[in-house]
Amino acid sequence: MKAAPTLSPAFLQPAGGKLPEPLLTLRQQRGKALVDMPLPTRKTENWKYSSRHLKLTEELATSLPSGRKAGPGLALDHPHILIHNGVVVPEASDFPELDGIEISSFADLDDDTAGQLAERLDNTLDNQAIQMARLNAARFEDGLYIRLKPGAVLEEPLYVIIETDAGASGSAYPRLYVDVGANSQMTLVEEYISSGDDAALVDSVTEFSLGEGANLTSIRLSLEGDSVQHIGATGARLLGHARLDSHTVGFGGPLRRHDLQVRLEQPGAECRLNGVAVSQGKQHYDNHTTIEHVAPHCNSEETYRNIAADESHIVFNGRIHIHEDAQKSAADMNNKNLLLTTGAEIDAKPELEIYADDVTCAHGATIGQLDDRSLFYLVSRGISRQHANTLLTMAFINELVEQIPVEAVRQTTQARLNQFIEQAFEEA
């Protein structure tokens, strides 16, 4: 019997970065736990469709160099923080002015704060299920720590630009920890971009901790180039009456993977997860979501829409888990998928796991093509067939894009999606 592949020892080399002692100790412990870590295969359930796209060659094991002072993408006129190749670049950032917010790189934390952070890292994620988050914990060279004090309100959206310079082969391990205090409120935009054409790996982890009554809007844009594999994980823990609004938009690549895990831990917590993924050529995109209803009287709403063109492949796996004590839970999941060509493929797997008897839950998934009657109607009114295809396809996802609450992000996203769709029909 052929032995299962394991993580190359090259990925276990000591990571660089000047971190406080508690975080260095944590990283060393995580690294020791990765020795002989099995890599996902087709027999790994949550990697069934994506394992063949994961290329962890030894040339990717080297950490990409940091220090470049790049300009931000969307955030020219807004508070923003640049993370370049996994390292925070303060001199290229514009920190928000608010007494109720603390922002620091991991490297600049004092030992007491770093010790508290080390105890909280990884507490929002099931690291046994998300193998690559474990690799991030062993390799991060820096990170971004954001703490919103109780009752504070950040009026403007805060942009975090995570840039990868793929001018050489290697890997980067961006890390964010966001502590949203009780009754505080903020909007966070994560924009993942890249430059260069060499093969690169981005293994990112973002964690949210929401106190009682906290309100967080999270917007995540995956916009890297075609040479970059992106494997991301986002975890969130919500206390009583906290609310998380999540909006994710992703464009395909050689491998795009995002695991989103939300735990509703106290009564009254609620979340809304909206997601859009598009792919073309031979690109691959994989969204895995999990919502854990741990406490009673919690609500969740999830809507994901995917578009695949050419010979590309998209995976959506959405799981809602209603725990035994989570009575009076309300959960709804909706997944719609659009195939633009016969060579494209979308695999959808909605899951409900319910152990409470007084709940209201529903889920559904559809996969189809553009409606011929609607297309005929538009063409018969003098609209070109290509433009009609673009209009109908954009309408399929625009309902979710319109819900992005930041106008600059919404407009940029619509323009990028429109460009993608027009190109898909040009090549069809």
TrEMBL record:
It holds the Pfam family SUFBD_core. It comes from the Bacteria. Residues 168-396 form the SUF system FeS cluster assembly SufBD core domain. GO terms for biological process: iron-sulfur cluster assembly. NCBIfam families: sufD. This is Fe-S cluster assembly protein SufD. The lineage of its organism: Bacteria, Pseudomonadati, Pseudomonadota, Gammaproteobacteria, Pseudomonadales.
